[in-house]
Structures are given as structure tokens and as C-alpha cells.
Q: What sequence folds into this?
């Protein structure tokens, strides 16, 4: 009988751990998506340098919503921030070692937040001041980045003395991003407003942040109910889909919708939901509306049950094998997501700007509707075994809880 050596066992253990980490380190729908932070040194000063920091969202559907992003890091030496435009440090820190002029921030590990669009013009730079919101690349590419400018002191003023910041963190509503170390890359190039001159950064550092479902919410944030025009039975959201009303680790406060006063305020990331059996901030209903000879039609209703939140630029990811035969979409925009396979079975749906792109907080206007019209492929279409219902639905990137398969309504 042979035995594995200690070194072999150790190697297998490391490989197992590595394998687990890799499966959790990226978004399973779009594994190549990431957020890239570019740190461009654009000018030297007598005591340091001026840098433009830009957060680029290269994810197809996952965006950063209210109350917005927070970017943090740790200085390699004793750097300070003398001034900042297009963003704001959350704390000043201890600046007692300075006499006369006081830096904007002296913390060893500063945190920067975005400014609002109403910020005075003299405090802005290009591509800044969006209230911390960053759109996804598919939904609104023009707003898929956010920038601010720093004047850094006590840093040296040559490319041989400047040190790269460490321990970069990107915090968003709902945790989930892990950032790698900053790396020196080829200097960025900038095109002038008149498009007749190209300038170049003196140094550029890239930081890549990836999303992991392993780090996100402990409880789901949405659920799905299913219904059909020819069946009175409805498959409701499973009970306690997003937590219970008891005091436990995933419980949520709730409010009777008939209550005359709802406490709290919007854009608070802590959900305050209507009291339901499922306790989810977002409820999605998939209704098989019509079943024609050559077509079939679906209505999707999204209901916001969260009194604290307006969902800006919401989106749905729907997985269904019939998206190859999608004929028309009503009430939303559509983009096929085919990054993982050559078949078109995953769709991204999102609201139309200035019409239904903001899902209002719980109440009279906290609903949006959209419809999908599919051409019926007789070789694949079936009314059996729940085929007409979605395989999976995501709201703003979070996987929603579906009813169990044996609860699905029968379709004639």
C-alpha cells in the first residue's frame, strides 16, 4: 500500500484552494468584466505631483448605484493630499506637522467619494461629479467612468522617487469587489478637445477590481413569481426568499403598506421593505400573457417594495432558451449576452431613459412593466415542464429566488 508524501498532500491542498478561489473571483455571466482604476500622473510639482484618477466600469451589466462608490488606498510613504477636484476626501486626518498652509487630507489611508452634479464648476474636472453613480458598459457607455484630480505632496517629484499606493479598495452599495495591486503600465494618451493634439501622462498605474458573488449579500435581494393566462394558479415568491421577519442574521425591518407614515428616507442602502411572506426589496413577476399559433408573449412586472431606495438605471438579466427567437421588446431596451456560449439564451433588459429607467421607491409608482414577443419555434417550443418560464433572473446583477419547479403553473 502506497502513501502520498507530505509535499504531495500540501500541493493538492493548495491546488484545491486555488481552484475554489478562481470560481468565486469573477462574475459567472461575464467572467472577463472588471472595474479598472487608472492613476495618471500628469504633472510634477515642487513637492510631488498632480494625478487624474479614473474609475472605468468594463462590466456589461453590473453598475454602481446610489449612494455611490468609495475609493480608498494606503500611501507608501508620508504622502498628503494638498488639493482635490471632482471628488472629496471623507476625513482630513492629523495635519499638526504642517504650519501655515494645511493639506486637504493627511490620513495615511484616505477615502475619496464622488461629488454631486450640482457641484460648482470651479471644483469640477472632466468626467466627474455624478453622485458616485457609474453605469455599465452596455447600458450607458458615456457614463461608464468617473474621474477626480489629486495634488499629492511629500511624494518626490520624479518617476524614480514616486511610490505606488497600496491596499486599494473599491466599496460600493453591497460589497463584492476585490482590487489587485497597482501596476505600472504604458502611459495613457489624451486627445485635446479640438482633436488636434495628443498629450501623454508622465506615469500611469492600473488597478484591476473584480466582482465576486462570494462577497455579496448574505441574503438574496429579489424573488420571482410565475403565472399564466390560462391558469388561475400562481407560483408565488417562495416564503422567506430574502429573509424572515424574526430577529436573525438575515432579518429585515418591514412596514405595513397601509401605514400612514413610513420612517426613513430614500437612497439608504439598508432595505426597509413592505411586510410580505418573502421579505424581498424587489419582486419580479413573469406572466405568460398569450400563446398564439406562431408567437407567444410574456409580460414582466418589476415591483419595488423598498421604501429606502430608488433604483437608478435598473436592469434585468434573463436566461431562457428561446431568446434566439425574440421578435420584439416593449417598454425596455435589449442586448444579448453571449460571452459564455455561442447560443443566445441570455438577455439584458433595462429601462428607457426618462421613461422608466428609475424604479421608484415602494408606493404607487414603484412598478415598471415590459413585454417580450417571441416567435414560436415548433421544434423547440413546449408547454411542458416549465419550459415557458425563465431558468434564471438577475436584478442589478443579484440572482433572484425562483419558485420550485413543481410549483410552476401548467401551460396549455
A:
Amino acid at each position: 500500500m502506497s502513501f502520498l508524501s507530505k509535499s504531495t498532500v500540501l500541493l493538492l491542498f493548495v491546488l484545491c484552494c486555488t481552484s475554489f478561489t478562481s470560481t468565486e473571483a469573477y462574475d459567472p455571466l461575464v467572467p472577463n468584466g472588471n472595474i479598472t482604476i487608472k492613476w495618471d500622473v500628469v504633472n510634477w510639482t515642487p513637492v510631488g505631483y498632480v494625478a487624474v484618477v479614473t474609475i472605468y466600469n468594463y462590466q456589461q451589466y453590473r453598475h454602481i448605484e446610489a449612494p455611490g462608490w468609495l475609493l480608498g488606498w494606503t500611501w507608501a510613504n508620508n504622502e498628503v493630499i494638498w488639493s482635490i477636484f471632482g471628488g472629496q476626501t471623507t476625513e482630513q486626518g492629523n495635519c499638526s506637522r504642517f504650519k501655515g498652509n494645511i493639506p486637504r487630507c493627511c490620513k495615511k489611508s484616505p477615502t475619496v467619494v464622488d461629488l454631486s452634479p450640482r457641484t460648482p464648476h470651479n471644483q469640477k474636472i472632466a468626467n466627474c461629479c455624478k453622485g458616485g453613480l457609474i453605469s455599465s458598459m452596455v447600458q450607458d457607455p458615456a457614463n461608464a467612468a468617473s474621474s477626480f484630480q489629486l495634488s499629492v505632496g511629500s511624494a518626490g517629484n520624479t518617476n524614480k522617487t514616486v511610490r505606488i499606493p497600496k491596499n486599494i479598495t473599491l466599496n460600493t452599495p453591497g460589497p463584492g469587489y476585490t482590487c489587485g495591486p497597482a501596476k505600472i503600465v504604458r502611459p495613457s494618451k489624451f486627445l485635446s478637445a479640438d482633436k488636434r493634439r495628443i498629450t501623454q501622462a508622465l506615469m500611469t498605474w492600473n488597478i484591476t477590481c473584480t466582482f465576486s458573488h462570494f462577497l455579496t449579500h448574505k441574503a438574496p435581494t429579489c424573488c420571482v413569481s410565475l403565472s399564466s393566462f390560462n391558469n388561475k394558479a400562481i407560483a408565488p415568491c417562495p416564503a422567506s426568499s430574502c429573509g424572515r421577519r424574526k430577529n436573525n442574521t438575515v432579518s429585515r425591518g418591514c412596514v405595513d403598506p397601509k401605514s400612514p407614515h413610513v420612517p426613513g428616507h430614500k437612497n439608504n442602502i439598508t432595505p426597509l421593505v413592505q411586510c410580505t411572506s418573502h421579505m424581498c426589496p424587489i419582486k419580479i413577476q413573469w406572466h405568460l400573457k398569450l400563446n398564439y399559433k406562431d408567437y407567444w408573449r410574456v409580460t414582466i412586472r418589476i415591483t419595488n417594495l423598498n421604501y429606502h431606495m430608488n433604483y437608478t438605471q435598473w436592469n434585468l438579466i434573463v436566461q431562457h432558451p428561446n431568446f434566439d427567437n425574440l421578435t420584439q421588446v416593449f417598454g425596455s431596451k435589449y442586448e444579448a449576452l453571449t460571452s459564455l456560449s455561442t447560443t443566445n439564451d441570455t438577455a439584458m433588459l433595462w429601462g428607457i431613459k426618462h421613461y422608466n429607467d428609475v424604479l421608484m421607491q415602494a408606493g404607487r409608482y414603484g412598478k415598471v412593466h415590459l413585454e417580450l414577443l417571441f416567435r414560436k419555434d415548433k421544434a423547440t417550443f413546449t408547454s411542458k415542464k416549465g419550459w415557458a418560464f425563465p431558468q434564471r433572473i438577475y436584478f442589478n446583477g443579484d440572482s433572484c429566488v425562483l419558485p420550485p419547479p413543481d410549483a410552476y403553473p401548467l401551460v396549455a
User: Anything to note?
Assistant: The helical segments are 6-24. The first strand starts at residue 35 and ends at 45.
